[in-house]
Amino acid sequence: MSILSGIFLSITVFAGLFLGQSAVGIHPLKSIVKVLLSVIAAVTVFEVLQFLTRWELDPGIVYIVLLPAFIWFVRMPILQAIFTILFGWTYQIAIVYVTQRNLFELAISQAKLDADSFIMIMMELFILMNNLLIILWVSRLKPILLPGEVFKESGSLDQPKFRHRSTLLVSAILLIVMGIFFQYTYYDREIFTPAYRLFITGWSLVLLAILVYYLKTSLRQKLAQEKFYLDQQYQKDMLSFFTVIRSQRHDFNFHLTSIYGLLKKNQHDEASAYIGQVVQQVQDVNELLPLSHPAMSALLNTQSELAKQKGIEIHYSIFDDLRGIPVSVYDVNKILGNLIQNAIEELELLPLVERKMHVEITKEKRHYVIRVSNRTTADEHRVMSMFQSGFSTKSSHEGIGLASVQKIVSANFGVIYPELSEEGLTIHVRIPENTEDY
């Protein structure tokens, strides 16, 4: 019976964690093998402890053992691992114990049946089938209560490490308090009347529904507000970018007329020079069009215009549209904007003929890569100092550029590093295609 109870417990725990992973925005199928192995190991430890101590231990011990396994073996971020464990524990206490076991046992007692081994095995099989249905349901619908972005670090030095830490803390406390209430209700069920047991089961489901609604709406509303605020920040750059595109389209007929007039007068050299100017203007915009999000193109266009005012020429080489990069548009723009701004500050120290910058966006070996190259007078010591908070070549600048970029990149399991050569300085940023593998 101990082996069977271990199997049934393993499936229950696995179903709860499977649901928990989906609830925190992680695709549960991608780490299913590691999670299953972790559950089997934790339940084995639990069963061995019960056998050695001869005590009836609380299955909640399994989740305590699983937390470090999720962090170091499954390699989940700490906050997501904690909430996955909490969701799995809440599922086991509220759904499996208080609802399913409680009602099944209540039905047996009301039917005046003896709770022999056969009846208990049938109950476990009933719960087993429900767990399998939960797993299939999660696999198909992938329900999310807390989007994955709420667990990511802010990436900004002037904001808390986790922007939603207060809401996450309240949510964790609610899950723990509710879990304790459900656990007390289940373990003391024998002293309650059947009517009260039915009432407490219904009330538990109502509380669980309220908790789910709170988790689903509270953080989503904040994320929607942040998105609206960020979209407003993008409007100015995007309007400027689209104005350039509309202006080019509007002026196209005038350019054709001018070229036609020059050719009619057999002024071929003048026509060729004129076409060269028009093509250069068009290429400056076309370089930015491959990017998937207009806000990224708008930012690069704005940076290019600002650089021109300082006699700096920026050349863009875009070989990937960043459509699948696992980083928000806002953070991608912070990376690009800070890298380019830092390079502009370096180039302002050089003669006009050397003020050239190259920005490359590509994808290499399942990593999204951003490179910004420019001439520099900096030595190796000064280059490394650029990554320290407060460093700047200007007294009026905040000096948080590369330090801020490094924080964003690290939060997404990427790397940023400088390369100093005779040609100048290149800052490399590499972000993995799938951060869930880390």
Description:
The protein is of the alpha+beta class. It folds into 2 domains: 2-228, no CATH class; 290-437, Heat Shock Protein 90 (2-Layer Sandwich), CATH 3.30.565.10. 64% of the residues lie in helices and 9% in strands. The protein starts with a helix and ends in a 6-residue tail after the last strand. Residues 395-400 have low confidence and may be disordered.
Comma- or semicolon-separated keywords:
alpha+beta; 5 strands; 9% strand; 2 domains
Helices and strands, with pairings:
Layout: H1 2-23, H2 32-53, H3 60-72, H4 78-110, H5 117-141, H6 165-187, H7 194-264, H8 268-286, H9 294-309, E1 313-318, H10 329-347, E2 356-364, E3 367-374, H11 380-385, H12 401-411, E4 415-421, E5 424-432
Parallel strand pairs: 1-2
Antiparallel strand pairs: 2-3, 3-5, 4-5
Helix pairs in contact: 1-2, 1-4, 1-5, 2-3, 3-4, 4-6, 4-7, 6-7, 7-8, 7-9, 9-10, 10-12
Give a short summary of the structure.
With 438 residues, the protein is of the alpha+beta class.
Strand order of the largest sheet: 1-2-3-5-4
Helix content: 55-70%
Overall number of domains: 2
Uncertain parts: 395-400
Gross morphology is elongated
Nearest-integer average pLDDT: 80
**Series of secondary-structure elements, N-terminal to C-terminal:** HHHHHHHHHEHEEHHEE
Nearest-angstrom radius of gyration?
Answer: 30 Å
Total E-strand runs: 5
Report the sheet with the most strands, covering strand number, pairing sense and barrel closure: 5 strands, mixed
Number of helices: 12
Distance between the termini: 38 Å
Strand content range? 5-15%
Structural class: alpha+beta
